[in-house]
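User: I want to check something. If I give you two sequences, will you return the structure for each one separately, not as a complex?

Assistant: Yes, each is folded on its own. Here is the first sequence with its structure:
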Amino acid sequence: VQTCALPISLAGVAPGDVIVAFDGDDVAGPAEFVLLVTRAAVGTARPLEIVRRGERLTLTVTVGRRPRDR
């Protein structure tokens, strides 16, 4: 059962996963991840590398439009 509707969880990232790369670029932290994603075109599929329970996995995610702040 999916309990989180955040876009990243809809892409297959689960609690406890560590994002290590986006579209071939290493990710050092949350701010860098946001910067890399904002540079990608909306609607394009990009590889997202994560570490889940010690195993490195590659997911394919579709970049969406960032919701506006309310």
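And separately, the second sequence with its own structure:
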Amino acid sequence: GSTFWALLVVTVPVVLPCTLLGVNLYKSLSDINFRRVTFMLLGTSGLGLLIKAAGAITLLTTVTATAAAR
């Protein structure tokens, strides 16, 4: 419905320039360097997810400990 079209209108202007940036980056770098950049970005993203998960675990244990103390 309308939610789909609203999300499409919001995401296309973001995705399209980033895709073009990736294509131009791929063309300007060697295959090895592009792979290195890609792996660094994936590693950074994974590290961010691990930090976020660690924060959620810490929050969960704090909430559980508080609830158990009552």
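Because they were folded independently, the notes below concern the second chain alone. Residues 31-69 form the longest helix (39 residues). The helical segments are 2-28, 31-69.
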